[in-house]
Fold:
Amino acid sequence: MVFKNLTLQNFRNFQYENFEFDKGMNVIYGQNAQGKTNILEALWLFTGAKSFRSSKDSELIKFQETSAKIDLKFFAENREQECTININKSRSAILNGVEHNSTLGIVGKINAIVFSPNDLNIIKDGPVFRRKFMDTCLCQLYPAYLGVSKRYVKALDQRNSILKNLKFNPNMEEFIEDFEKELAVCGASIIKYRKRFVEELNKYLPKIFSGISEGKEKIFIFYDTSAGENEEEFLDSLKKSRFVDMQQQSTTIGPHRDDLNIEINNISARVFGSQGQKRSAALALKLSESAVISEITGNTPIALLDDVMSELDISRQNYILNHIDGWQVFLTCCDIANTKNLTNGKIFEIENGKIKL
Ligand SMILES: Nc1ncnc2c1ncn2[C@@H]1O[C@H](COP(=O)(O)OP(=O)(O)O)[C@@H](O)[C@H]1O
Ligand SMILES: [Mg+2]
Structure:
C-alpha cells in the first residue's frame, strides 16, 4: 500500500494544504506545535479508527470552522484509489465513489500502524499495556478473538462476583464450576491465539531489532502464562487457586494476568533497559506487528512514526531513515540534524499549518 497524495482542508491548524508523498520515506520536520502530528493523525483516520489522540471529532475541525475535509489518493490492490473523509459533527467517508455514512464502512481497507512516544509503555509499564498491544492487533486480525475475549470477561466477572459473595453464601460454590469451565474454554483459546501471535512476531522481531541496534543486541520475547498450556491444565489451576482467590476476592490466574516478557541480551527490557533500548524495542515490536499484519492480510501497513528520533543515537536513527525496507514511512521530527543521513525520500518542513517552501 502506498499513500500518494493528501489534501487537508480546515483540518486542525491546516486551512488548505496538499502533499505529494514519496513512496518510501517521508520526513515531516518542524518546530513544536506547527502541525506535524496533525498530518499523521489525518493519515491515520483513513484506517477508519478513531484518532490516536482525541476522542472528539469536533476537535479535528479548524477553530472557527464548521467542517473539515481530508482527501487521500493511494495505491492498493494493484490500482489507484481515493478516499475522502468529511468531518462535521461526525465522520463520513467516500471510498472510490461509494459513500459510507460512518468511517466504520472503510475499516480494513487502508492499513496503518502508528508509533508515538506513548507506545514506550509497552516496554516500560505494567503487563496491561503488553496485553493491550497483543489484543488490539489480534482483534483487528481475527473477529473470533474479539468474541472469545468478550465471553472470557463475562465469565470472569461472574466467577469474581461469586468469590466476593461466597463468605456470606457458601452454597454458591457449586455454581463456580460452570464459570470455571467457560473460563477454561475461552481462556485457553485466548492463550493459544496470543502464543501464536508471539510466534509470528518472533519471525520478524530479531532481525528488525538487530538492524536498529546494528547487531549489537539481541531481543527475545515470550508469552508468560499463569494458567497452563491448555483447557485441562487451566481448569485444574483454577480449582487449585480457588482458596487463594476466595481470600483475594478475585481470579488470580488466567490470560487477564498474563504477560509478554521482553528481554534484551537475556535480561528484562522493562527493568534494565536504557531509554534508547526501550524505544528501539517498542519500535521493533510495532514494525514486527506491521509485518505480521501484512503477512496475514496481504497488505503492508503504512508506518506512522511520531517523534521517534530524539532519544536514539545516530546509528539507530540511520537505520530508521534508510533501512526500513518495504514500508512507506511517515516520520516526524523537530531536529533536522536527525535526518542528515537520509539517502532517499522527501522532507516536508512544516510551519504554522503550511509546508514551508
Ligand atoms: N482544531 C484545531 N484548530 C486549529 N488549530 C489546532 C486545532 N487543533 C490543534 N491545533 C493546533 O495545532 C498545533 C499542534 O499541532 P501538532 O501537530 O500537535 O504539532 P507538532 O508539530 O508539535 O506535532 C497547535 O498549535 C494547536 O494549537
Ligand atoms: Mg507532535
Residues 12-13, 30, 32-38, 59, 61-63, 332 surround adenosine-5'-diphosphate (ligand 1) (CB under 6 Å). The chain has two domains: 2-111+299-355, 122-271.
